[in-house]
Amino acid sequence: MIKIKTTILIAATVFTAISCSNNKGITAKNGSSQKRNVSQMELPFKMPEIQIPKFKTDTLNIVDFGAVPNTEELCTTAINTAISKCSESGGGVVVIPQGLWTTGPIKMKSNVNLHTQNGAYISFTADLKQYQLIESYFEGNKVIRCESPIMGVDLVNIAITGQGIFDGNGSNWRPVKIGKMTANQWSELVNSGGVLSKDRKIWYPSQGAYTGNEEREKLPKTPTTANMEPYKQALRPVMVSFVNCKKLLLDGVTFQNSPAWNVNPLMCEHLTLRNLTIRNPWYSQNGDGLDLESCRIGQVTNCRFDVGDDAICIKSGKDKEGRDRGKPTELFVITDCVVYHAHGGFVIGSEMSGGVRDIFVKNLTFNGTDCGLRFKSVRGRGGVVENIWMEDIRMNNIPTDAINFNLYYFGKSLSEDKLTGEVTVVKETVSESTPVFKNMYFKNIYVNGAAQALKIMGIPEMPVENIQFQNMIIRSDVGIQMNYASKIDFKNLDLRLDKPGIAVSFSNSQNVTIEKVTAVGENQMFWVGGASTKDISLKTNGKKMTFDKDIKVLESIKDEVKLIE
């Protein structure tokens, strides 16, 4: 665990509580206001106006359709009938009142605002018979999965609003790894039933879940919704699935305890997600918070995340299928969010084969998040990630990297020099399957404790390119390490190392400029290596530097390094 110090003072951010909504005649127009109006923001790209859904004031109550609260009696028919009647009559509001409601999959319809009152707790049943196998998507590819607890396909003008809680009963679906539980928790889980993997390190809720994950060679060669039925518990759905929908609003509610990913809009346009709480147990397998996948035009604002995998994640399909679909995630503004536990606070990848572009991120806070800003891919993905702006990012107590670029995700492990972080990778031929990360801008980044400040692991045939860092104050154990990067600029960099080491090291990188840098706690300011390194300019903030004492450079590339007074 990172020890917190007071070296950097980061102002606490206070967020307003989720605003209340009127219980009658609810419309999106009268819902909680956005903290930042996108149309009034100065953005670095041309942003279309986000179309927010509007609804008639006609209101239906699920109780009038036979829903019974505070029992285990399923309300599936009542909820879905109310939604269908509302949509068929031209739209309006379907109200879920306060109370505990047990239900199967909720199927949204066009022109419906599903509004949950304060005190409404919607629990999705553990009875797997209620979730039919369907042709769906996961990780960007077409697959057979179970129906999602909340789902909608080819809809327009839809919303889920209010202050209610939707619980996906994910523990009934998810495998659990032994390393993520205490001895007592693990013993209790194993004694509850289920099946252990051969190495007894993974618990599965059923034999079908075990076979579907551990013995895939036993699965049908040509899977269908019929022959995959015995293994359906392995085919975990995302909790909130909207596919090819337009004008979507999610406002104020809590989504928690999902079977797999939590909220996953796919190929949708005009999205407004605000004032949400998205939660999963920290040990939840594939327990992502929000996955925006091949979507365009939208805003995410004033949301809270505490999840078991990546929190705010931008995706666009996987490998050839994603490239062939060719739908990038683009034109999004993400502001004023807080992330607690997650593998990554804000993430792009690794399924980014359709591309990601024109994303503006501002005022995010990460507290105890495993990694802060995370960008990941691997050879074979393809896709272009470009034109990403991030500013006013605060991080506290980050167990790994504050900022990480990893172009070897799921690839074979690399052999790194323990002191410098240098790696040497064989160059491959550039093709459509080569991932590209370029044109990214970081401004006002403040980190109060991380294992490492910044790590860039590019690939030699396509280095991470044109990345600008401005105004960064970072306290960490290890400083900055870069491999296979090009056109990298630092300006106003303040590093405070808790362990003696190299402040900034890079290898096999070109056109690197470091201006106005200070460091405290280091025993070496710069290390420069790699046979392909060239055009390096170093300028500290008033400190005179000399080679060997402050800067160690591979002798064969010494002429490529310039010291600027």
Automatic annotation (TrEMBL):
<keyword id="KW-0378">Hydrolase</keyword>
<dbReference type="InterPro" id="IPR012334">
    <property type="entry name" value="Pectin_lyas_fold"/>
</dbReference>
<comment type="similarity">
    <text>Belongs to the glycosyl hydrolase 28 family.</text>
</comment>
<dbReference type="GO" id="GO:0005975">
    <property type="term" value="P:carbohydrate metabolic process"/>
</dbReference>
<dbReference type="GO" id="GO:0004650">
    <property type="term" value="F:polygalacturonase activity"/>
</dbReference>
<dbReference type="Pfam" id="PF00295">
    <property type="entry name" value="Glyco_hydro_28"/>
</dbReference>
<dbReference type="InterPro" id="IPR011050">
    <property type="entry name" value="Pectin_lyase_fold/virulence"/>
</dbReference>
<keyword id="KW-0326">Glycosidase</keyword>
<dbReference type="InterPro" id="IPR006626">
    <property type="entry name" value="PbH1"/>
</dbReference>
<protein>
    <submittedName>
        <fullName>Glycoside hydrolase</fullName>
    </submittedName>
</protein>
<dbReference type="InterPro" id="IPR051801">
    <property type="entry name" value="GH28_Enzymes"/>
</dbReference>
<dbReference type="InterPro" id="IPR000743">
    <property type="entry name" value="Glyco_hydro_28"/>
</dbReference>
